[in-house]
Here is the input.
Amino acid sequence: MREAFILSEGFQMLNSFYDKFIFTNALKYKDNNFFLMNLPFFICPNDLLVGLLESNDPEFEKSFYSHVKNSARNNLGPVFGTDFGFKGEKLVGFMERFFAASGWGLIKNVDLDFAGSRAIVKVSNSPFARQLKRGSAMPVD
Here is the structure.
């Protein structure tokens, strides 16, 4: 009986962002894989990504960043745009909430230039930055 009471008080299974998808059956775990609106994703320890970022190889870091940025632009944006009907600032806002709810830290747009395809963002409470042993001498891309 206590469990039903807790649920009625606003109990969260994961976080408010993902709970919406859990309750609408849009977040699935099938064949040992997670899917959000048919988009595959995985949960992994910070140390895996931090290990890549600690390479201290500027060419690798540029290539890695470029591939991630292009994948987000070419794959995530269209999927979220199609599935949710978001475009422009609404799509950017959704992606900010998605990444924050996924544990990347709080993402805030400082300057967003759609015409020039550029954005300046600030990430607070990043679990990756917290674990990196070296800092950044200048802003990233």
